[in-house]
Design a protein that fits this description.
Shape: flat
Family: Belongs to the binding-protein-dependent transport system permease family.
Subcellular location: Cell membrane
InterPro entries: ABC_transporter_permease, MetI-like, MetI-like_sf
CATH architecture: Orthogonal Bundle
Order of helices and strands: HHHHHHHHHHHHH
Number of strands: 0
Low-confidence stretches: none
Mean pLDDT: 86
Number of domains: 1
CATH superfamily: MetI-like
Pfam family, one: BPD_transp_1
Protein name: Sugar ABC transporter permease
Number of helices: 13
Distance between the termini: 30 Å
Largest sheet: none
Length: 297
């Protein structure tokens, strides 16, 4: 009985210490999320309203041409960004895993872009891709008078410039995740492969990549949540232009919230983004919990 009391006291003290953080979590995050969902079902314009209209704001949202363009842009950006980032990050990790000279320096160089904000990344790439004084001008100054690289001002190509910048920003993070997974693979597997005479590409394809399932899943979830939250890169590089050619859902929300004074439509768009994030993160959390449960079993 005496041993139980100190245990209960320590647990109570721990709960008491966590109480402020728990209160902030409930009030700020859960409360604001619930309020956002509620407002998305009202006729709110510049100021919140309690006039319930059901799913009318969502009907207006999905009929909005600018929202459709934003979602389409995000789909193109997301697919290319995730595929190229994962492929490039994995290849960089494989290269560094060969115990090359200057490994620490190379890891720092590849991971450095991720240490910068998307605002800085966007401004850097805006300068590089500017036809007046960027890569195009450098090519012409070198004597290639017909050289053109003006994607950032072309409506049909501008979304791909966002992919360039985002891949440059995130590939280093994927490399770090994959490299940690590669370093966790038992060296005996490679020895057995050499004895069997298997070429390295076959070992990576048939053995290593399946063993890195957790690393690929982690990288995919992190990249996917970055895709849904994409805002600052688009604003810094193109401000959604030319026209709305590089518009993304987060910018749609911010513009309708602060510039157009349409609170109901903005919160409906924000709620749609929340549902998308939950659809991505939810299965991953479930898989992680099942994996942890099996490990403890």
């Amino acid at each position: 009985m005496r041993a139980i009391r100190p245990r209960l006291a320590s647990r109570f003290a721990a709960l008491l210490g966590l109480a402020p953080a728990l209160a902030i979590l409930v009030v700020v995050y859960v409360g604001c999320t619930a309020w956002t969902i509620w407002i998305s079902m009202t006729s709110s314009r510049m100021l919140p309203s309690s006039n319930f209209v059901g799913l009318r704001q969502y009907e207006a949202l999905f009929a909005n041409e600018r929202w459709q363009v934003s979602v389409g842009n995000l789909a193109v950006f997301g697919v290319l960004f995730m595929l190229v980032s994962i492929a490039l990050g994995f290849l960089l990790a494989v290269a560094i895993d060969q115990r090359v000279r200057g490994e620490n320096l190379l890891r720092s160089i590849f991971l450095y872009p991720f240490s910068m904000s998307f605002i800085v990344t966007g401004l850097v790439w805006q300068w590089l891709l500017n036809p007046t004084f960027g890569i195009e001008k450098m090519g012409r100054d070198l004597g290639f008078a017909a050289f053109r690289f003006d994607w950032i001002v072309r409506q049909d190509m501008v979304i791909y410039t966002l992919v360039f910048a985002a891949v440059w920003h995130a590939a280093g993070l994927v490399m770090a995740i994959m490299l940690a997974g590669l370093r966790g693979i038992d060296e005996d597997i490679w020895k057995a492969a050499r004895i069997d005479g298997l070429p390295p590409w076959r070992v990576y394809l048939s053995v290593v990549i399946p063993m890195l399932g957790a690393s690929f899943a982690t990288a995919s979830v992190l990249l996917a949540t970055s895709v849904v939250r994409l805002y600052d890169l688009s604003v810094a590089m193109t401000n959604g232009g030319p026209g709305v050619a590089s518009e993304v859902p987060a910018k749609f929300v911010m513009d309708h919230l602060f510039e157009r004074g349409n609170l109901g439509l903005a919160t409906a768009a924000a709620t749609s983004m929340l549902i998308t994030v939950a659809a991505v993160v939810g299965p991953w959390l479930y898989w992680q919990s099942r994996r942890t449960g099996r490990a403890h079993a």
